[in-house]
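Input record (one chain):
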Amino acid sequence: MIVINARFLTQKITGVQRYAIEICKRFPESIKEKRIILVAPKGELINKEELNFLKIHQFGNFKGHLWEQIDLVNFLKNNNNPILINFGGVGPVYYKNKITYIHDLAFKYYPKNFSYLFQKAYNIFVPISARNALRVITVSNYVKKDIESHFNIKNIEVVYCAKGTHFKNLSLDREKIILAVSSLDPRKNFNRIINAYQQLDSEYKLYFVGAKAKSFSKINITKESINENIIFTGYLSDDDLKELYNRASIFVYASLFEGFGIPPLEAQACGCPCIVSNKTSLPEVYLDSVEYCEPESIESIKNKLEFLIKNKEKREELVKKGYKNIARFSWDTSAKKLISIISLEI
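The corresponding structure, as predicted from the sequence alone:
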């Protein structure tokens, strides 16, 4: 038996949950004759229909982190301690027969951006969980080096993200829309994007797509953001998001910190040129396929927005480069790499 911690099926889909679902969709029913089973808390599951070919077992009485540390551990012990695949979060801290993911160390660099309990728990327990794992998986070489430096462990593999196959160019008419997509996490830098936008002399509207997660600290939306030309859509379905990527003329992702950063890949797949932060993992992922900004500089963000608004040829060039860039990443390739890593440990 191979057990997947499927707590992600109880959560709204952001980057980590999308990663887990896309990889699991490409798993076989078994690896080396060991059947794959997803174990989740009791209650409503989100998007489980995408994984119905795999066995899904709901077990235990707790929710959230307590479920992982008590119920999931009990399930594993009752089934002869099989190998566990943990796609995100802390996972069972002291369980050793596991392969666990660390998507980034944002909690270490930006503790004030998270709730007090969240960042304390992650700073204490993620290093312990990582050192107890057979292997740690992460999503970029940037994060791999970061984990090696902070936790002094070497058993780390990189398995990249990719964009969803449903994100594609629909050949819609482009509108005067600047689009930003992310959870409303302070490190996504939306206040500077708003300030930069306010300085533009343009007919473009600014759309923000994303919802606030419980783990983030209080977010300050300034008075300047209450404006008929600045629209907060909240969380959107993939179909609605795909349409908005196809209507937008410019995508901006001025994040201060990313382990990988999937949304610009989605925008590129939909034919939308991108402005991306020059920090952390993003230059590794996007190479020369985007226009880079300095995310801590409102002036830099403004200048890049202004440049693309006025430069149709540059937008068209970035669209072509974007299509080439997305071809570097594939969920099929990533799933095969993870399967080969699991095969070495069972």
